[in-house]
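Notes, Module 5: Reading structure tokens.

Key idea: the token line is not a picture. It is a compressed description, and you learn to read it the same way you learned to read a sequence, by spotting repeated patterns. We will look at two proteins. The first is printed below with its tokens.
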Amino acid sequence: MSVPPGSLRSPLEGALSYEGKEPKMALDERKRTELAENLERYVDPRTVELLMEALSAADLANLATKQDLQALDHKVDLVEQRLIAEMHRFGRNQLLGLAAVIAVFNTGLFAVQAALS
């Protein structure tokens, strides 16, 4: 089963959410600016500028949250269970078909053997 494009949406569109008691952070330009200012304390300004360009607010909105990944993991588990069930069903049908062919072959073989004796 494939998941149609765009069907998995974050329940927190427009915000990053962390489990537990960590604060929610809105994905707006003010927060990006604050992040850049804090980062400049530890990293040179050019690196901060490159990071901010690479990680725009629009890009942040497309990042998966922990909840997104957990939901996706759950869906993958369900697909895996269905696939395993289908493989078992297919294997059982193949085995039953093979058993029927062997039974017909043996019946024919015994009939030929009985006719020759």
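Here is the second protein, with the sequence above and the tokens below, as before.
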Amino acid sequence: MWIIHSFIHLFILLSFFFFYRKYEAGVESGVYPKLPPLSAVNWSLLTHKFEHELLLDYVLTFPDLVLRVACPVLPDAPLLPEFPLHLVR
């Protein structure tokens, strides 16, 4: 069961990167507008507690999570690196 759970989380991460690259290609070809800089975002539109929780728990922590899961410290040979996929919710 743990293997299926980890696979699903890895699949979600990889599909995010796939769709982001597709979005960037759409921006370059003029299909989509560019994302505004964070300083131009009107954060006051987030009025529900749930929206704040999503932002704080998932969006803002995502870059750190990717670094911790995808870029582990490599141990000396013959040990293999451990990828802490349990950190991905």
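Summary for the second protein:
- Residues 2-28 form the longest helix (27 residues).
- The two ends are 15 Å apart (CA to CA).
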